[in-house]
Amino acid sequence: KLFFTDYGNTAKVERCDMDGMNRTWIVHSKIEQPTALALDLINKYVYWVDIYLDSVEVVDYQGRKRHTVIKGRQIRHLHGLAVFENYLYTVNSDNLSVLRINRYNGTDVQSLAKLDNAKEIHVYQKRIQTAVRSHACEVDPYGMPGGCSHICLLSSNYKARTCRCRTGFILGNDGKSCK
């Protein structure tokens, strides 16, 4: 699944399949300007920062179990969001600091470092990388991902895929080749 935020006409957090199909709103009320988003892949939670409401909130992948992790002036101007173990990590662009927030109680907020101009933060750790199983976009014997001549996108599950073409090309009748 692909998760993303949108604060156009109606602010929301959404999810869809990797090929853009099955688009679903998972949060669309009591939300104003959702920006940064992070996933807890193990427990299947979606965290986001709302810069208008000065809050960090969380829901499960279906939009249930919503609650506010932290709210208030101390978390204004947040950019980027990452989850690792018991904490959320984010960047405060107002004072250029990296913050660590306890994601269970929100009261434990620590400034870890100062940075010159950061807007994103990512955690890279072997334990949070999901195991890769064989999937529909694996390279075939001819060197083409999922048998697609240009782009292979996973669909509703790891066994299904959709082929797409680069700009200026049209997908052929076979659903794999681009012309």
From TrEMBL:
GO terms (BP aspect): canonical Wnt signaling pathway
Instruction: Specify the signal sequence span.
Output: none
SUPFAM superfamilies annotated for this entry? YWTD domain
SMART domains per the UniProt record, alphabetical: LY
One GO CC annotation:
plasma membrane
Q: Which residues form a coiled coil?
A: none
Give the LDL-receptor class B repeat ranges. 1-43, 44-87
Q: Name one GO molecular function term.
A: Wnt receptor activity
- Gene3D superfamilies associated with the record: TolB, C-terminal domain (2.120.10.30)
Q: Which PROSITE patterns match?
A: LDLRB
Entries under Pfam families matching the protein:
FXa_inhibition, Ldl_recept_b
**InterPro entries per the UniProt record, alphabetical:** 6-blade_b-propeller_TolB-like (IPR011042), Cueball_EGF_LRP_Nidogen (IPR050778), LDLR_classB_rpt (IPR000033)
Q: Read off the PANTHER family from this record.
A: EGF-LIKE DOMAIN-CONTAINING PROTEIN, VITELLOGENIN RECEPTOR-LIKE PROTEIN-RELATED-RELATED
Q: What is this protein called?
A: LRP1B protein
What organism does the record attribute this protein to? Piaya cayana
